[in-house]
């Protein structure tokens, strides 16, 4: 009888608990289970949402109550002889909710799995479908540790009403938005894989080149979310603090070649590359001059950018200014009217292109530039007093590059084979540093220290490339 359905509240916890307080909470939890299943009357000022909230809150605050709650739900779904026809069904729904949020102990795990597998794989049982959902939820919860934050009342109300997913907005580079049904159990990796599916990126290795960033309004810097992090843990915490946030999908590592046959892929990569190009970060200018080949590329890309914006008239002088990389406007040997003439000459080659074709052409031109596919960071490095300490750090598939701030020539380069380790250090004044241990062998190792507020993101990207 201890492990079978009962119509009455239990007099003591099913498992041995350490204190009277925990025992009291266990009994309160059992009554909440009975209320949700319809086997115990609910006060007029309460609802089934309150019952679920009580169960989840107790399990969130007291880990030891998780096994107890699982045992209680197993009891109430075993040989259920309730007068309420939907009692057992609601018990299994509660089971699936519990399994979506909390793991169990290693001691209970084999028994819990055996119970769920027996119910899920026996199609003669009325609730085998819900039992299968419980099984899937529990496997995922045990793999990723379960939810870290208490779900919001809105989320509990939704899952109590049988709505297992939330319409969550995700942004793509360029401002395009995608709504993805996000479940209580959805982790960052799930969302990355779903968006990658839309752009025909299927292999595990290539999917690994994409990240999901959370940008919070007012924060200067951002880092990608950990792949095993629960999406609704992130959003619930931000909403609780009334923070405005955006979840943005983008490419963070650039080993794989471009895919030029998928419109959404082109849109994402183009809108990610274009801002860095116009800022001038991709442009290398030895001696603060632009090579003739590069001048031709810049003029062509300017014309293509104009067409990519769906303009069908020749770029004017005023428009040309915004189609060129910023440093190009300040070079000594090419004046603004010359740039206009060059861009307008290139326009004749591209004016018949469709905007999509123009974006593809931009990427094909820039892909040949040495800094294409780089992530850029402003850093200060410990340098010879005679040298300028400010640098731009560029990370790309060819390694770690310290660039001159003005010309973007590579001052120091390390391949990823030479990067032995990275370590984040904080000074007493609160400055953040990154120590990079580099060297081709044990005898030629040295530590390169850089000061940067983005030490965490640089370290993470280096690890991702390695």
From TrEMBL:
Q: Which residues form the MyTH4 domain?
A: 5-160
Repeat as a keyword of this entry, yes or no, is yes
Q: Which keywords describe this protein according to UniProt?
A: Actin-binding, Cytoplasm, Repeat
Output one GO BP term.
Answer: system development
Where the record annotates domain FERM, the positions are 165-466
In which family does this protein belong, per the annotation?
A: Belongs to the TRAFAC class myosin-kinesin ATPase superfamily. Myosin family.
**Name of the molecule in the record:** MyTH4 domain-containing protein
């Amino acid at each position: 009888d201890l492990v079978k359905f009962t119509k009455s509240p239990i007099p003591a916890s099913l498992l041995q608990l350490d204190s009277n307080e925990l025992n009291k909470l266990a009994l309160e939890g059992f009554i909440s289970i009975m209320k949700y299943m319809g086997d115990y009357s609910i006060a007029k000022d309460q609802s089934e949402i309150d019952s679920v909230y009580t169960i989840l809150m107790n399990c969130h605050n007291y880990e030891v109550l998780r096994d107890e709650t699982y045992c209680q739900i197993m009891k109430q779904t075993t040989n259920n002889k309730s007068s309420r026809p939907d009692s057992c069904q609601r018990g299994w729904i509660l089971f699936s909710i519990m399994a979506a949020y909390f793991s169990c102990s290693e001691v209970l795990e084999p028994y819990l799995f055996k119970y769920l597998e027996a119910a899920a794989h026996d199609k003669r049982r009325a609730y085998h479908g819900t039992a299968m959902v419980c099984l899937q939820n529990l496997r995922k919860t045990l793999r990723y540790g379960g939810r870290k934050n208490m779900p919001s009342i809105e989320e509990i109300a939704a899952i109590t009403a049988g709505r297992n997913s939330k319409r969550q907005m995700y942004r793509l580079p360029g401002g395009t938005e995608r709504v993805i049904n996000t479940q209580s159990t959805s982790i960052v990796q799930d969302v990355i894989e779903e968006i990658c599916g839309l752009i025909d990126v299927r292999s595990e290795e290539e999917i690994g080149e994409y990240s999901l960033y959370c940008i919070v309004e007012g924060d200067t810097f951002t880092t990608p979310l950990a792949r095993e992090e629960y999406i609704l843990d992130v959003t619930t915490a931000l909403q609780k603090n009334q923070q405005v946030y955006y979840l943005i999908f983008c490419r963070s590592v650039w080993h794989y070649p471009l895919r030029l046959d998928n419109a959404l892929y082109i849109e994402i990569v183009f809108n990610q590359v274009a801002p860095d190009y116009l800022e001038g970060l991709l442009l290398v200018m030895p001696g603060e001059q632009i090579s003739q080949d590069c001048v031709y590329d810049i003029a062509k890309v300017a014309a293509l950018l104009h067409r990519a914006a769906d303009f069908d008239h020749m770029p004017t002088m005023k428009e040309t200014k915004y189609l060129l990389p910023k440093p190009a406007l300040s070079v000594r040997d090419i004046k603004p009217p010359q740039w206009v003439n060059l861009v307008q000459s290139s326009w004749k080659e591209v004016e018949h292109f469709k905007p999509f074709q123009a974006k593809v052409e931009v990427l094909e031109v820039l892909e040949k530039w040495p800094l294409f596919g780089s992530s850029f960071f402003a850093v200060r490095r410990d340098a010879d007093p005679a040298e300028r300490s400010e640098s731009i750090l560029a990370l790309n598939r060819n390694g770690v590059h310290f660039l001159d701030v003005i010309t973007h020539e590579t001052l120091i380069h390390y391949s990823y084979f030479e990067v032995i380790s990275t370590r984040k250090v904080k000074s007493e004044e609160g400055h953040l540093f990154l120590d990079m241990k580099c060297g081709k062998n044990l005898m030629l190792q040295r530590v390169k220290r850089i000061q940067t507020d983005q030490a965490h993101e640089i370290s993470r990207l280096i690890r991702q490339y390695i």
